[in-house]
Design brief:
2 copies of one chain form a homodimer. Chain A is α/β, with parallel strands linked by helices. Chain A folds into 3 domains: 80 residues, Winged helix-like DNA-binding domain superfamily/Winged helix DNA-binding domain (Arc Repressor Mutant, subunit A, Orthogonal Bundle), CATH 1.10.10.10; 104 residues, D-Maltodextrin-Binding Protein, domain 2, CATH 3.40.190.10; 102 residues, Periplasmic binding protein-like II (D-Maltodextrin-Binding Protein, domain 2), CATH 3.40.190. In chain A, 40% of the residues lie in helices and 23% in strands. Chain A starts with 10 loop residues before the first helix and ends in an 8-residue tail after the last helix. The structure holds a DNA duplex.
DNA sequence: AAATATTAATGAATATAATTCATATCAAAA
DNA sequence: TTTTGATATGAATTATATTCATTAATATTT
């Protein structure tokens, strides 16, 4: 283990280490920084031999950071944040710190993580007009084009000229049941299990509900539906045995831990959904939009469990 | 001016910006980071077009940092310091934070900048035995080989197996005169001007005094000599008109500003000297030695004026 | 227990991007 | 005006980061 005379450390390494810390796996981290697993493996190897220390340790098939790794992750956190702050200053200097960010949500549960994010954003970009476009919108792409919103957060759209989909993350949708529900015995729920149940959903059309679109409809199953506006309302209905729901895994942890409801995987490999932030191409290059996207990804990966990087 | 979607900023850029700030010129900065002037010019251009802002501004033939440039330099300062701190921690983790650093000085004036440096070093590396090897040593290389010292600070040595010369900086040696000395009228002093003067030097052999070796001896001039141990003593003798001296420019500023003495260039292009830190090859790879060298260079470039990067 | 699927590590090949080289441009000094 | 010292620029080169293809190792499934 010899050491080169000058530091080989680059921000690329710190970005990798941060992603490694957030995702807990080399291949997920690789997705997060848009590189291959191999590339990261080489990067880590280079760092280890440079410092004469191991940075990660294989624990079974997962990896764990060593003390040295944690020290570098701590550095990465500080440094990357300082860089973000500097880049915000630079954007202000180039008079690119003004404009509007009106956010439209295709996905009701996204409120959960969006609220704190918006608070932080307001601090960092006081001169950007921040708004939440309320209500349901049948054609989000049109909304962007007509200037009704600057970002739409939802699923991917068919490739379209002038629109960019910025990948956020992939999450699992779990079935939510009352603790004493008969289906509690099954570890995994399949389409047939929903046949005689009442499905509790947000008040949106069928084709916007992944469970119906990707699981039930293909199996020819059409359960009864009942709707509620708010996530807590849905959970309340589930807990009082009025039916079952399908919700993103991240918002469920607290309720499941307190035995208010139970959660079950849907179909063998689970029902997954990908979340994107879509903008017009011209909007995509604005510094505050880019900053919004990076902090969105950062805070989501830091706070929501079970999500996976896209791309 | 379009912007790429992800930050292209790397530590390399920050190292460049820091050097640019320290040296005030692209080509000197290039020397400092061991690259060509062209490489830095390309780096800066890339940053500027990435952020859509100019970072430097040509003021005549020199360059000046813009506000954006200064912001990035501030970032660089913080970030590079944090990295140094982290690398010290890592060295401790790999048990490479112990050993000895006995410093021998070939150059008397180096005391001036070495003292505060040693204080900082003691803080950062409490488990490294730090010492100053006192007295004059005829053969510094032998001193290293026999283990009498770990670093020798002085001029370059003939390439020798097992010894590495780490370049520190180049500095100018100025003639120092009493303010009312007859030679005050001349802007530049030449060998002949020293013929009838008494030369006041440190108590070292002639072949270790650059003025004699490179200017006077080649011109066949052998002025009287008188010696003093300390820089202040030499200056005192000069001020009281006992003779003239030749000292590094950096230590003179205060005395010249207070009209205690005056300083003059020696020979047309000035008399310059290069300072190196020499170690055994094996010592060179120790983290605390590398840290010592970088902080030495950093503090010198930050505090001593008129010095120029080597290599 | 065997088979299959994940995940990470590795060496060689490739692609990318940083640096150098050669030269042009510019401002200041001689 | 000529010369000198400094930066900018495009093309060529070099360096090196990343990918590809494969192996090894550990879980998970049948």
């Amino acid at each position: 283990m010899t050491m080169s005379l000058v530091s080989i450390l680059e921000l690329r390494h710190l970005r990798t280490l941060a992603a490694l810390h957030e995702t807990g796996s080399v291949s997920r981290a690789a997705k997060r920084v848009h590189l291959t697993q191999s590339a990261l493996s080489h990067q880590i190897k280079a760092l280890q031999s440079h410092y004469g220390l191991s940075i990660i340790q294989r624990r079974g098939q997962a990896v764990e950071l060593t003390d040295a790794g944690k020290r570098l992750v701590a550095l990465a956190g500080k440094v990357l944040e300082e860089i973000q702050a500097t880049e915000r200053s630079l954007a202000k200097m180039s008079q690119q710190a003004t404009g509007s960010l009106r956010i439209a949500l295709e996905c009701h549960t996204c409120f959960d993580w969006l609220m704190p994010l918006m608070d932080a954003f307001r601090q960092h970009w006081p001169d950007v007009e921040l708004d939440l476009v309320s209500g349901f919108h049948s054609d989000p792409v049109k909304l962007l084009e007509e200037g009704g919103a600057d970002v739409v957060i939802g699923s991917e759209h068919k490739r379209q000229r002038g629109i960019v989909d910025h990948p956020l993350f992939r999450f699992e949708i779990l079935a939510v049941l009352a603790p004493e529900h008969p289906l509690r015995r099954k570890r995994i729920l399949h389409a047939a299990d929903f046949a005689d149940e009442t499905l509790i959903t947000y008040p949106v059309p069928e084709d916007r509900i992944d469970l119906i679109l990707n699981v039930l409809k293909p199996a020819g199953i059409h359960p009864e539906r009942r709707t509620a506006e708010l996530t807590v309302a849905i959970l309340q209905l589930v807990a009082s045995r009025r039916g079952i729901a399908a919700l993103p895994s991240w918002g469920l942890k607290n309720y499941v831990d307190h035995d208010y409801v139970i959660a079950r995987r849907i179909s063998t490999h689970g029902l997954w959904s990908d979340l994107y932030a879509s903008t017009l191409t011209e909007t995509a290059s604005r510094p505050y939009l880019r900053d919004f996207l990076t902090t969105a990804r950062n805070t989501c990966f830091a706070t929501l469990d079970g999500i996976i990087p896209l791309e």
